[in-house]
UniProtKB/TrEMBL annotation:
Chain ranges passing through the membrane: 9-27, 88-112, 124-141, 162-181, 193-211, 231-250, 270-289, 301-321, 333-351
Protein name: Membrane protein
UniProt-listed InterPro entries: Seleno_YedE, Sulf_transp_TsuA/YedE
Superkingdom: Bacteria
NCBIfam families, per database record: seleno_YedE
Record lineage: Bacteria, Bacillati, Bacillota, Negativicutes, Veillonellales
Annotated keywords: Membrane, Transmembrane, Transmembrane helix
Length: 356
């Protein structure tokens, strides 16, 4: 595609994704959470029994669909390629702390946009922190930050993660406990659209994100580095479409207090997404982009997704995740430790690159 066609495709895809996200809420997903990569990975690891927070335990078909949608379209477009080996353990640690930051804010960058489209002004603090974290990351990029090259791997390596998603789908369909596990106690895990509605939406969004390379981290990074707005326009389109559907459906409730699955502590909303923004720019993509690249055969992104999953389990097993009541003391410590660790990773991999 030429530049104009590419930009048009990104805007159209963004409008479609934003509409689907808002419609998923009408179909049963939690308010302002048609899609949330961080929240849905957390729910999935809870559904598998890897954390003990009963309110957020459900294998989310949207995650399965996102990865399989990317996998299928990348095969059709001959873009599926098994590769990896670029500092995998470092990527795992970065993914772990990105999740800690997201669960302090209570959402990933995708949900941040959807929260704004629902009128949740607390997400403005998250957006400011996210952009600031990316800005710090860009400083390291300009100085030569690198996690080194990837290497070609066997086709089997690239097929493992999609195969795992099929296993999870079978578990979800064959074991109703994964569907109704949290119904009695309520909570976000008990709120979901029908399985095949969620799966279909995930497949479509996964394909659209694979086709357009949508990534909010990449959008802000490219704007800072090159004044390029192409990717940002995709997320602006997501916001506009979700906003219009929310207004039409009566789901637009502007304000700070009483927002669904959110808290009003501006400082920790800012710092949580500052950590997520910095970690994501060092990884080369937001949680959505990592899932899409995992579907394309990138095992470095698979390792990152596993880091996100481990971070979600750790956060809920050790009370690091925030809640509607606000951040916990453990969560505040976790975010500050994460900021220090991620800055060390950035510095080490920048100065090492300068010496190489």
């Amino acid at each position: 595609m030429n530049f104009a066609s590419e930009k048009r495709a990104i805007i159209i895809a963004g409008l479609g994704i934003g509409m689907l996200a808002a419609l998923l809420v009408l179909a049963g997903n939690p308010a302002n959470m048609g899609f949330c990569i961080a929240c849905f990975i957390r729910d999935t690891v809870g559904g598998l029994g890897l954390h003990r927070a009963g309110a957020v335990q459900y294998i989310r078909p949207e995650i399965i669909g996102l990865l399989l949608g990317s996998f299928i379209l990348s095969l059709i477009r001959h873009e599926h390629a098994a590769k990896g080996g670029s500092s995998p353990l470092t990527r795992f640690v970065l993914g772990f702390f990105v999740m800690i930051g997201c669960l302090m804010f209570l959402g990933c960058p995708f949900r941040m946009i959807l929260r704004l489209a629902g009128g949740d002004w607390n997400a403005l603090f998250g957006l400011a922190g996210f952009a600031a974290g990316i800005g710090i990351g860009v400083i390291f990029l300009r100085r030569g930050y690198s996690l080194k090259r990837t290497y070609a791997l066997t086709k089997l390596e690239g097929a493992v993660m999609p195969a795992i998603q099929i296993v999870l789908l079978v578990l979800l369909l064959a074991a109703p406990a994964f569907i109704f596990f949290t119904k009695a106690g309520g909570g976000p895990g008990a709120q979901h659209a029908a399985v095949f509605v969620s799966l279909g939406a995930g497949l479509l969004v996964g394909a659209l994100a694979q086709y357009t390379r949508l990534c909010m981290v990449g959008g802000i990074r490219d704007f800072i580095l090159f004044h390029e707005t192409k990717l940002l326009m995709g997320f602006a389109a997501i916001f506009v479409a979700a906003l219009l559907v929310n207004v039409a459906a009566g789901n637009f409730h502007p304000g700070f207090a009483g927002q669904p699955v959110a808290h009003t502590d501006g400082l920790w909303n800012f710092l949580g997404m500052w950590l997520a923004g910095l970690g994501c720019v060092l990884l080369g993509g937001c949680p959505l982009r990592q899932l899409i690249m995992a579907g394309e055969g990138n095992t470095d992104s698979v390792i990152t997704v596993l880091g996100l999953a481990c971070g979600a389990a750790f956060a809920h097993n050790f009370a690091l995740a925030a809640s509607g009541a606000g951040p916990s003391d453990n969560g505040k410590v976790g975010v500050m430790v994460g900021i220090i660790v991620v800055l060390i990773i950035a510095a080490v991999n920048t100065f090492r690159s300068q010496k190489a």
